[in-house]
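Hi both,

Apologies for the delay on this - the queue was longer than expected. I finally got the zinc ion-bound model through. Below you'll find the protein sequence and the ligand SMILES exactly as submitted, and right after that the structure tokens for the full complex including the ligand.
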Amino acid sequence: MNLSEKFKSVTCEHCSKKVDPTATNCPRCGEELLNPEEKKPFLNDIHCGWVRNLTCFLTGWAGLQVFSLIFSLILQIAMGVNNDSSAALKASYMMTVQCVAYGFIFLALIAILWPYLKEVFRSFKGWKPYVAGVVGFIAMIGINIIWNLISRAINPATGSNENQQAVVSMTKSFPALSILFFGLIGPIVEEITYRVGLFGLAKRVNRVFAYVIVPIVFGFIHFDFSSIGQASFVNEILNMPTYILGGLALTFLYDRFGFAASTTTHILNNLFATIAQLMPTGN
Ligand SMILES: [Zn+2]
């Protein structure tokens, strides 16, 4: 398959639907398609075609940002939130923005992938993705511990970044919603955006390129750009490798074991982080 062939669609001889040229089996009816051998590198992908790859990525990335921004401005006025507002009001404002934005984008992504949901659910069959997901989770914890030690050696004042600090205050005020949105819906939205969307698209161009670009983009979306020129900038930079390496691990899991595996790791990782924040601290 050359480059342009991966950006066209083929017609399934069985159900005569237009399908992704990288699929070994028709994502719609399951019948085997021509030349399965050369499509092996794409075996575990969600075969939704490059247009849906791109749409998922733009919706989950730019769509989420734009929606959050507009909705947060409206809500700020509606709730009368400003710098002097109480911490409780600020927390409920931030939580509402997060839940509505993630909920809306989640539904939009489901609608985009609607004809391919069967293939998404199929990736959850069998024990392999769960074993890979748990191993991936343990590896992510290992990466976190090791990088924490390194970054504290570089800068002893390293703490959690802005992103995490805002999440902590919301989690404590709304534990059940936090578990649902940060532990479950957030990871699913990000897996559809960055693995099905961005990785699925970039991999059609080149696999190595896809492995480079996805973790970098994943690192940057967790970076607080308002820290540039501030004291917290070093902290933000030192938190980047965790996200980049985490993004790399999730990308590998998706590529090798499918959507269910990377989603399992991502959910376990976020559930663990959310529940850890709810635990009373010893000091
Ligand atoms: Zn078919």
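Main takeaway for now: The first helix runs from residue 49 to 79.

I'll put the files on the shared drive as well.

H.
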